[in-house]
Amino acid sequence: MIEKHRRQKKPRAHPHFVWADPERFHVERMAAGLTQKQAAQYLGVSVRTLRNWETGANRIPYPAFKLVRMRAGAIVHVEGWEGWRFARDGALVTPDGRTFHAWELHNLQLVVGLARRYMDTRKLAPMPAVAENVPLLRVVA
Questions:
Q1: More confident call, 130 vs 113
Q2: How many CB atoms lie within 10 A of CB 72?
Q3: What fold is seen in the domain 19-79?
Q4: Following CA atoms 49, 51, 57, 61 in sequence, which dihedral angle do they give, to the nearest 10 degrees?
């Protein structure tokens, strides 16, 4: 009898289902300003299901967590931006609570651009040598 070579199943690189943490779900629901009843209506589930999610009795599907985070104004599932969110007035809020408005970030972009150009010009033009024991300012009396 000829034995067939079957392909070995490989484990998934990314799990098929991703579940959210009940504590984080509760925090995001509160940040969104939703009561349990409002959140249940928003997600299309019963209040009992929502309570079971928050107590840890049932696992929370990640899409439900993602929707609540989006309602709360969070930046959703982007590498390196964990904890960052948008405030109700459109400001970007850091994980430690500092806020940046759009105009502040625009000004920051200008300052960083100017600093980069300054550093590039310093690399191109060598600094003039300063002779020792020569005063930089002359005081004229």
A1: 113
A2: 19
A3: 434 Repressor (Amino-terminal Domain) (1.10.260)
A4: 60
